[in-house]
């Protein structure tokens, strides 16, 4: 199998760095109104500002023409500080996949990926943004470029939300595949472990699902939060009444291998993680997904497919197989297609629903496990 041990430690508590300035998206409705009245402006200006930001995806105060110019300047200074500065965007898939590198106020770098999927028989067009919740990641998974880069810091609620606003703005323009569209899906599968930045991620989720002027009004079913298996946080998320889709990055059905591929398994074992996911499914009524990167000769054995099938057959779970995406310096590559097909066959023989993920963005290092925020 070869060595799969990682030398990086697990990091649950992010390094403390200077906090970004408070932004509109950090605040709930009462907080926004209070901030506006503190400026000596009428409270209704808060709703005007929020409708521009959440309803029209406008982040530039100069473009908010329904606000008086003087009020615009005041509000911009207090509630619309620039949080994300675009360093560069690169596109592939005929312009339908776009990766953006952002610089934050303290110089930290994060990436997000916007993807347009055409309508197919029985399904509508989807425009999905994959966003980051941390700069870097402390979970130390050895096959993931983000995990091998270590953790810089947590993102603020507004830094998370503003990635979605920027994506929605691009989708509404003709910049993603040549025609205007509507952002439909958000996946917390970019840089970082979302549940290690729990409070800010939950606040961001509320901004995503609340209707304007308090949020973007996205469908809860269209939002996915991924985790390597922080069991207590999965339990807390189940009690938030958000009912978003849970995705568990499992990558191995046995503790011996998962201890090395997903080091958090040394804290919470496979059985505990699946039990927490089952409780989430019972609480929300929502099927969860199992993310499984197919690594040649490491976790793609037929007996592991059977073991995974045995584990998941009685559960409300769906498997997403992910052909391993190449990362610099990694000794591993993706399983051969024949091995992948046999893995799928064995899972289906256990009546476990399974799909193989479309590896969008691989050419621009924008696919799963490739985000490294290289300047």
Structure description:
It is a single chain. The protein has 375 residues and is α/β, with parallel strands linked by helices. It has two domains: 24-79, DNA polymerase, domain 1, CATH 1.10.150.530; 85-364, Aldolase class I (TIM Barrel, Alpha-Beta Barrel). 32% of the residues lie in helices and 18% in strands. It is built from eleven helices and twelve strands. It has helices spanning 29-38, 44-56, 69-79, 145-148, 157-172, 198-209, 231-238, 255-261, 270-284, 302-312, 337-349, and strands spanning 85-92, 97-103, 109-117, 126-130, 134-136, 151-154, 185-188, 223-227, 245-249, 288-294, 317-323, 354-356. The strands form two sheets. The chain has a ten-stranded mixed sheet, with helices on one face. It has a two-stranded antiparallel ribbon with strand order 5-6. Strand 8, helix 7 and strand 9 (245-249) form a beta-alpha-beta unit. Helix 1 crosses helix 2. The longest helix has 16 residues, at 157-172. It is globular and about 70 Å long.
